[in-house]
């Protein structure tokens, strides 16, 4: 008996001896689009950062999942997403036929995308990346977290001040005790006019993508007949122009991304099907469904020359993971609804003031099973993503991205696009790094400080299509836009829309007066004394700046005349009598009035 006890003690002591404890400031779990961006930004923000990914590739859906044609955010290629786009274009620029124009749809081979991300992360100071490293458990550790991982068959523990759940399924937040909802939200609950009257638990279908290659007219790349193959499942393809579908998914080197709707790649699931205990069987069936699609294409439709490309390190040559459009959404400090996209400036909350990223993906609704509510979105404009939607409610220093963000079902249809997630991930990383660097918690987040960090590293917080990063007024427009002093204009064209700042148009007194009176105590006295007309003039702006900053008016005017074109890059001649343009207003207001310095809470309310 004593011998058995001693043996047991020896085993326990050995396990303790060989289990390592790793300390870091920020831990990002999940190496998808948002996870990579978050980890890189966190490290660049000068905090020690770890990124763990259970698979062998970085990039998530857009590499390991095969979603390698990215249409979203191409007109807003900001921050890390813009950096990734440039690296892809640089890699392919010597290849004939590859479109390298500014806003071209981004296409790449999945293995190339994963390689570029790995090379990029290898060059980032303060960042450690661990691939093939599953996460197994998480528990609270003061204001931080202890996360268990599996390394070479043994369990190690990572102690982190802040954790980002960038997994495809919200596994970390689930084990941390976060509360979720799933499926369609009701109109009554969200106030969204497009939402159904009653909630449902339906989530969007998953897709197991395939990367095909044309091996030549005489080639026969027909795969073995998949298990449980039923050709009637794919009969709708006989009504589809297959050549057109292939062309829409064209990559390089005669390769094609196959992510077709309806009876093709889509596979219907529930959130229960995506739970850890059911995933393996669900994914086995989904893979077989896509293999059946390829077999049908080859045998029934005559495309035997179209075979699976040697793109992924898998036995069946399909992607490593499926494309998950939706699963379950955490309850955050705020919840983003459609009205935050369509009417951001007229709501009780002002979530746009707390933006940490931008997106413009056209939302999708993918269901094979009949009966799902049919959603008709009005023309979809670009939007800002609020900070509170990535902060898990009642779970200090835990952030969520990917499909777990605190948004409604109808917003989820856009925000989980990989391009949007990569742009958003930068803001997530800046937020987590802020907590770690300053020893603060998610209950104390400094919105303006985090936004400034995003801007410093080339990101965007306001989705203005007509103010590129190369514009000298870019930073001023971003900062003043985030205050609400001057709002954007939605411009609709067909089924899409843009958000325009219109920098060369006139500033009207009625649009700036409410905000100025809100944040400057002496403002109403100036308006009562000056009585500016409908058009706010250059002279009005200088007079207001003089009053608020206690600067001698004559001195201020002399400085402005001298610097108008040389320092401020204004193109219209200095004239105090003419209406001030929006560009002139934001540049000067940002410098002399500094409205961006006024703090806001997570609902966008000004803090005195």
UniProtKB/TrEMBL annotation:
Protein keywords: 4Fe-4S, Iron, Iron-sulfur, Metal-binding, Oxidoreductase, Signal
The keyword Oxidoreductase is assigned to this record: yes
Cited Gene3D superfamilies: FAD/NAD(P)-binding domain (3.50.50.60)
Signal sequence annotation: 1-19
Pfam family, one: FAD_oxidored
GO MF entry, a single one: metal ion binding
InterPro entries for this protein: FAD/NAD-bd_sf, HdrA-like
Keyword Protein biosynthesis: no
Protein name, UniProt field: FAD-dependent oxidoreductase
Organism in which the protein naturally occurs: Mucilaginibacter gilvus
């Amino acid at each position: 008996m004593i011998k058995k006890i001693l043996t047991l003690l020896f085993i326990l002591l050995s396990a303790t001896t060989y289990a390592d404890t790793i300390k870091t400031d920020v831990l990002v779990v999940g190496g998808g689009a948002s996870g990579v961006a978050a980890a890189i930004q966190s490290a660049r923000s000068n905090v020690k950062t770890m990124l763990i990914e259970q698979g062998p590739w970085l990039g998530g859906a857009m590499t390991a999942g095969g979603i390698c044609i990215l249409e979203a955010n191409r007109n807003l290629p900001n921050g890390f997403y813009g950096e990734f786009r440039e690296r892809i274009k640089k890699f392919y620029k010597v290849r004939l036929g590859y479109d390298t124009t500014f806003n071209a749809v981004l296409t790449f081979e999945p293995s190339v995308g994963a390689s570029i991300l790995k090379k990029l992360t290898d060059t980032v100071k303060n960042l450690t990346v661990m691939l093939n490293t599953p996460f197994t458990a998480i528990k609270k550790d003061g204001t931080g977290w202890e996360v268990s991982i599996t390394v070479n068959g043994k369990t190690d523990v990572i102690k982190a001040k802040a954790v980002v759940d960038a997994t495809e399924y919200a596994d970390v937040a689930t084990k941390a005790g976060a509360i979720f909802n799933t499926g369609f939200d009701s109109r009554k609950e969200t106030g969204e006019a497009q939402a159904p009257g009653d909630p449902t638990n339906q989530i969007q279908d998953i897709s197991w993508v395939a990367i095909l290659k044309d091996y030549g007219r005489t080639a026969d790349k027909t795969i073995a007949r998949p298990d449980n193959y039923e050709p009637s499942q794919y009969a709708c393809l006989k009504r589809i122009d297959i050549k057109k579908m292939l062309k829409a998914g064209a990559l390089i080197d005669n390769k094609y991304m196959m992510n077709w709707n309806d009876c093709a790649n889509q596979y219907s699931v529930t959130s229960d099907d995506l739970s850890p205990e059911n995933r393996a069987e669900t994914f086995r069936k989904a893979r077989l469904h896509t293999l059946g699609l390829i077999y049908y294409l080859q045998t029934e439709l005559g495309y035997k020359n179209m075979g699976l490309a040697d793109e992924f390190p898998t036995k069946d040559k399909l992607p490593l993971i499926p494309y998950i459009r939706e699963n379950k959404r955490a309850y955050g400090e705020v919840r983003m609804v459609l009205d935050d996209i369509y009417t951001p400036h007229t709501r009780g909350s002002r979530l746009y003031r707390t933006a940490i990223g931008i997106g413009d993906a056209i939302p999708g609704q993918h269901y094979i099973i009949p009966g799902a509510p049919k959603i008709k979105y009005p023309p979809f404009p670009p939007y800002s993503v609020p900070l509170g939607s990535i902060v898990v409610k009642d779970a200090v220093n835990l952030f969520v991205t990917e499909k777990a963000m605190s948004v409604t079902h109808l917003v989820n249809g856009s925000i989980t696009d990989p391009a949007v997630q990569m742009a958003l991930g930068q803001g997530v990383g800046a937020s987590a790094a802020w907590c770690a660097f300053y020893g603060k918690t998610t209950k104390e987040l400094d919105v303006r400080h985090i936004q400034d960090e995003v801007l410093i590293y080339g990101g965007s917080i306001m989705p203005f299509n007509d103010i590129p990063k190369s514009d000298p007024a870019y930073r001023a427009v971003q900062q003043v836009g985030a205050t609400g002093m001057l709002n954007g204009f939605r411009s609709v064209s067909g089924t899409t829309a843009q958000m325009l700042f219109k920098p060369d148009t006139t500033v009207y007194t009625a649009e700036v007066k409410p905000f100025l009176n809100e944040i400057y105590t002496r403002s109403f006295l100036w308006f009562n004394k000056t009585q500016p007309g409908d058009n706010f003039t250059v002279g009005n702006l200088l007079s207001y700046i003089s009053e608020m900053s206690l600067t001698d008016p004559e001195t201020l005017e002399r400085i402005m005349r001298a610097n108008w074109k040389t320092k401020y890059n204004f193109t219209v001649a200095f004239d105090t009598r003419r209406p001030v343009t929006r560009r002139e207003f934001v540049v000067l207001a940002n410098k002399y009035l500094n409205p961006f310095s006024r703090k806001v809470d997570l609902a966008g309310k000004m803090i005195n």
